[in-house]
Amino acid sequence: MLHTEYIPAAEKSSRRLLVMLHGLGDSMEGWRWLPDALNLPWLNILLVNAPDRYYDGFSWFDYPGDIVPGVHRSRRLLDELLDDLRTKNFPPDQITLGGFSQGCLMALETGLRYPHRLAGVVGISGWVFEIDNLLRDLSPLAKTQRILATHGAFDPILPFAEVRDQVHRLQAAGVNITWREFPKEHTIHGEEEIAAIREFIREGYNA
């Protein structure tokens, strides 16, 4: 089981939920600012710690090295988390799955394979794992799944051109993915990027 923390929406009856996955070496602590920044009073937020210790934080898989076992294990854990949320009256179509860097990879990997359509998937400054296998194993609903991918033109960790080419391959395969690029490094580009994420989440709920 993954360690999580639930931050309830100001609107207590809302079942709309953002599940947020951090990057390498970070934790849920690094994303406590997000509810205030998004300023969506009807949005519950679930912060999630990755399963492996990494210095003072956590990781979703070994990096560098053989990342395959960790990605597969973490995807199973996220599938279980989404299934558990269904039992707690958070329907998949009310859940947005988001992630940064490693968390972005896991959000895309999970969202495009999960057998239920989510409200949306947000991938920030990440990349696509084994894209040929992913395209082969897309869920029957994957091409109707709304996805937002953002990346920095000056990212020194995950090269911009390579990630953009991966997104273009997904688009060419019919995946409904919107690409947004920002003049940033491996980070969040302030309110401009937050506004794009906010609007994407809002449109997923027609709010």
Written overview of the protein:
With 207 residues, the protein is α/β, with parallel strands linked by helices. It has one domain (4-205): Rossmann fold (3-Layer(aba) Sandwich), CATH 3.40.50. The chain has 6 helices and 9 strands; from the N terminus they run ββαβββαβαβαβαβα. It has helices at residues 34-38, 68-87, 102-111, 131-136, 160-172, 190-205, and strands at residues 4-7, 17-21, 44-48, 52-54, 57-59, 95-100, 120-124, 147-152, 177-182. The chain has a 7-stranded mixed sheet with strand order 1-3-2-6-7-8-9, with helices on both faces. A two-stranded antiparallel ribbon has the order 4-5. β4 and β5 form a beta hairpin. It starts with a strand and ends with a helix. The mean pLDDT is 96.
Note the main sheet.
7 strands, mixed
Shape: globular
**Proportion of β residues?**
15-25%
Structural class: alpha/beta
Sequence of strands across the biggest β-sheet: 1-3-2-6-7-8-9
The helix tally amounts to 6
Structural domain count: 1
The third-level CATH topology is Rossmann fold
Could you tell me the mean pLDDT? 96
Head-to-tail CA distance between termini: 32 Å
How many extended strands? 9
Backbone CA Rg: 16 Å
> In CATH's first tier, which class applies?
Alpha Beta
SSE string, helices as H and strands as E: EEHEEEHEHEHEHEH
CATH superfamily: Alpha/Beta hydrolase fold, catalytic domain
Low-confidence stretches: none
Bin the helical content.
Answer: 25-40%
CATH level-two architecture: 3-Layer(aba) Sandwich
